[in-house]
Design a protein that fits this description.
Strand content: under 5%
Low-confidence stretches: none
Mean pLDDT: 88
Distance between the termini: 55 Å
Structural class: mainly alpha
Number of helices: 3
Largest sheet: none
Radius of gyration: 18 Å
Shape: elongated
Oligomer: single chain
């Protein structure tokens, strides 16, 4: 593949899409980790959030971020 077959703007949009995909995957994994680390959730609550995030990833993470209580340290 020669350089003129893949223009600079194409490279830019490829990087943007990969960055967005990485951000989405990272956020979903962070929600799983945060869910299982919480001490104020019962086992059933953790399982419910896990299934909710698993089957509806973007919507589930969005709802989880809004619904979870602030961390009490």
């Amino acid at each position: 593949m020669l350089a003129y077959d893949y223009p600079l703007l194409g490279v830019f949009w490829t990087i943007v899409l990969f960055s967005f995909a990485f951000l989405v995957i990272f956020t979903i994994l962070w929600a799983f980790v945060d869910n299982f680390r919480r001490k104020d959730h019962s086992g059933w609550a953790k399982a419910g959030w896990f299934l909710f995030i698993l089957f509806l990833p973007l919507f589930g993470v969005f709802v989880y971020l809004i619904a979870r209580p602030a961390a009490v340290e």
